[in-house]
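check this:
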Amino acid sequence: MMAETKKKLGPKYLPGDLSPDKALERIIRVDQAGEYGAKRIYQGQIDVLGDTEIGPTLRHMQDQEQEHLDYFNDQLVKRQIRPTALTPFWHVAGWAVGAGTAMMSKEAAMACTVAVEEAIDEHYAEQRDRLIAEDREHEMVETIERFRQEELEHRDIGLDNDAEQAAAYPLLYQAISKGSKLAIWLAGRI
């Protein structure tokens, strides 16, 4: 009787919410865009700081972002989901943010890493929780959680490499964090 009642009541989401299928499309689109942007940020940092002591660390983080990007690229193709129309913008903006912060200092580049990765951590945690609540996409939930842990590793690397010593750290952190959250919002809609 209870299952019958639930069917009559309809879905577990509110009017105006995305259906689970549309939400999944948005998750994949946003994550692909975010990983592409992260890869470009690290490329900008590598182009400036690649020959310094932090270069191998930046390449390690970029390699992990490439693995994440490859996964979401594959999901776009498998599920026939269109990528964000903002990819050309992320190509330029991601590199500019990475190179710009790296030109400021190694600490500013690491502050960028901390801000971006904390925004991604929050975003991935929300996605994971939604998919768990919907009891679906169990493999994707595990993958998102693994990627989230790697993003937290990147944040910790940034903190261990003096991110908080960057000039005007609170301002830089807030600007990049808010920019990352805006990019997430835009990528899901455009």
About this structure: The longest helix spans residues 20-49.
